[in-house]
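Structure first, sequence second, as always.
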């Protein structure tokens, strides 16, 4: 039996104002986006950049699987990341 609480981690991508993508993990993506916008608790990636919008999310990860998936996404090319975003946008479950 899987503990639902253990699967409360998300992998997300944020598009920055320069068109680049930031990938991270959190248990609350909206809160984390707000933290990135506020600069106080945001990632160093956003020094000199501003977060624009959340463009991708994956749910039902535990801390370990979220970290592994984050690492895998960070290794993707920009085109591969764009395809991942596009595939989610065309998925009726996320539309």
């Amino acid at each position: 039996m899987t503990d639902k609480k253990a699967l409360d981690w998300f992998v997300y991508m944020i598009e920055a104002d320069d068109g680049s993508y930031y990938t991270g993990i959190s248990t609350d993506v909206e809160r984390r986006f707000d933290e990135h916008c506020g600069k106080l608790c945001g990632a160093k990636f956003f020094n000199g950049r501003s977060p624009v919008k959340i463009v991708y999310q994956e749910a039902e990860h535990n801390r370990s699987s979220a970290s592994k998936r984050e690492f895998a996404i960070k290794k993707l090319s920009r085109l591969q990341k764009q395809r991942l975003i596009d595939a989610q946008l065309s998925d009726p479950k996320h539309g």
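Margin note: The beta strands are 9-16, 21-26, 51-61.
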